[in-house]
Amino acid sequence: xxxxxxxxxxxxxxxxRVDPESPQLSKDGDIMLGGMFSxxxxxxxxxxxxxxxxxxxQCTSLNFRGFQFAQAMLFAIEEINNSTDxxxxxxxxxxxxxxCGSISRGVRVAMALANGNEVVSSPSETPCxxxxxxxxxMGESSSSPCMAIATVIGPFHIPLISHFATCACLSxxxxxxxxxxxxxxxxxxxxxxxxxxxxxxWTWVGAIRTNDDYGNNGMFTFTETAQQLGICLEYSVSFFRxxxxxxxxxxxxxxxxxxSKVIVAFLSHMDMDVLIHALSHxxxxxxxxxxxxxxxxxxxxxxxxxxxILDGAIGLSIPKAHVSGMRDFMLDVKPFxxxxxxxxxxxxxxxxxxxxxxxxxxxxNQSECTGHEDLTGVQNSFTDMSxxxxxxxxxxxxxxxxxxxxxxxxxxxxxxTKVQLDSxxxxxxxxxxxxxxxxxxxxxxxxxxxxxxxxxxxxWQPTENGIVDFVTVGLYDASFPADKQLNLQNKLLIxxxxxQQVPRSLCSETCPPGTRKILQKGKPVCCYDCxxxxxxxxxxxxxxxxxxxxxxxxxSNERRDACVKKEAEFxxxxxxxxxxxxxxxxxxxxxxxxxxxxxxxxxxTPIVRANNSELxxxxxxxxxxxxxxxxxxxxxxxxxxxxxxxxxxxxxxxxCISCVLGKxxxxxxxxxxxxxxxxxxxxxxxxxxxxxxLGFTLIQVVICILWLTISPPFLFKNFKxxxxxxxxxxxxxxxxxxxxxxxxxxxxxxxxxxxxFLARKLxxxxxxxxxxxxxxxxxxxxxxSFIPAYVSSPGKFSVAVEVFAILASSFGLLICIFIPKCxxxxxxxxxxxxxxxxxxxxxxxxxxxx
Length: 850
Known about the structure:
The chain has about 850 residues and is an alpha/beta fold. Helix content is about 45%, strand content about 15%. It has an eight-stranded mixed beta sheet with strand order 12-11-13-14-15-20-21-22, with helices on both faces. A six-stranded mixed beta sheet has the order 2-6-3-8-9-10, with helices on both faces. It is rod-shaped, with a radius of gyration of 53 Å.
């Protein structure tokens, strides 16, 4: 019974199994706020044997930044407590813990702030039902601890407001519902860094990141955006400040072996300090560093860069801020004098570089600490206020909680202290608040618990005394349109090695206009060769990935960077070939006119009268038209000239051949009339001769009309024959119509040739049929050879072939039929007699020819 009662008594008591987490700084108040900062940046590794209870985490490397963040929080709380406008009659207290940058310690501290540190509790106290120990928690400074802490306290809806955790992943409210921050998300910073790299034309860069959620997530977004902007990463490596020297040495070797001259460093200031130390041993200067807000405006990092490795660095920082009274308050170290003896001793000895007498590690050459040292004249990272924008973020976070409490408690004149505070209600009100600080800055949170994304672009410019000056050279505002978010003043920039020129970092040189990029096998897209555009294609921008084909009427110039209008080619009067053909045409016309003049002058002579003078004059007229129609083929063609040239050629040649055919029929009929009892000539007299010429010609006219009506010739721009020229041609329209015109001419020519051939041996001193036979032989030979020559000749040469065929056949008719007669008329007048013309022929024959 005694044992059972003892067991039941034990069951009514809950005992904590771990050591309590005591705050390093605390003060009671009506409403308590929690703080989690890293007063130390590292901790000693230990190997747990699981044979005994693990020892508490032993923190090392005192970090003044954590003390500054705590002071900023205390300054805001003191200012609110002394205010009569905000939370009147309500005092804010605080519990601030050192988490040493450790995720596990941060989780334990968060649980302690939420549940308290009671050693023993009974179920009757219902610890889970009572309010949390603190109403909101300020901190932590890094993303990874914030992720773990927000995961633990998220179900309790305790607001966690960070001043320096920028990982974009923390914007996910499904995972971290109670997390808020007063610093922009890295989603915007990463994209801004990529735009900054693109702005300066760097397409070949290296990347180094902190191996935690901050660095990995930030670099992921940067890489994704960089790829969209055409930027390639030669390498992307990660490390953590606690990594072994060998791993950090490998990173140094990668940098030394790289060809890129720009390095994007997504690092915390503590990791950057470790990297600078390693780079200094190898004197790796001359690289252009692009930095995230984690280190780019940290004066402590600049002070460590004694080898000027980071000179000219450029990056993003939180906009500069000034809070009246904050600097003086932060330099007042009295709050730490009331902290635990161990922390105060370490802080004081490090701050004033002295040792307390009881300290075992006291060195001979160090002065003894009194605890009343004056901070005036001390120059170290604690007195450095370069991180004032981050201190201001802590300040704004405290004020956000105060304004939310002010609204919940209805503090118009006095606050209603009877209101039961609830973490969820506080969280919801913090998300909705919007207020102005005393410096005039707007404070609000978006739906993800993030503030507006605004950055200053900082350039490290070394001064004469060796101190780095953080010069603002531009602004980035994510609320602006995409093309106006980045605003830079390039003239203010100083680059690596104190250069005034923007460094170049390309895997391959820029491809000039007139070329296109060809990727190098097995290498990133930024590594390429430049290939000249093919003929007829151009690229008018640098680094073009394709060459654009010119429009059909244009062709690429010699540099392949512009399309120029193609030269229109046609048989023109100005060129030699066109001029010669024109001269030949006019010469033929002139010769025909001279022959006509001679025939008119000697029209009463026997030789003219004996050769059917009317048909001769009509033939001469048609020859003039044949010579002149060749001119329609020369010069720039048009719609009308295309229709005119073929139809005029077809009709005039039929008229010409019809006259020759009439003369041939007359010769045959005349000799047929000499036969006894023949009455042939009355059926083919002068009237019938004229009607036959008209009839043959009308048939060709009908063919041409049908051709022009159904599918007439038209102007055609030939782009295929020559690449760099436009051949202006007259397309046939209907090929059937064209070949019908030619075929009809050929049919009449063959008929005329056959009849003349039959009459070639008729008895007469001047047998015209012989000359007609020769003329038709030349005519047929010319046009038979014309067909293959016309089909195979390109461009204007096909037109020249056609003109040559017209002139050759016209000259053949003129020379063979009329020149022998002119020869007799002018040079052998003695043969131009009736007696000589009759010769051995009968008188009836001679009379029939008249």
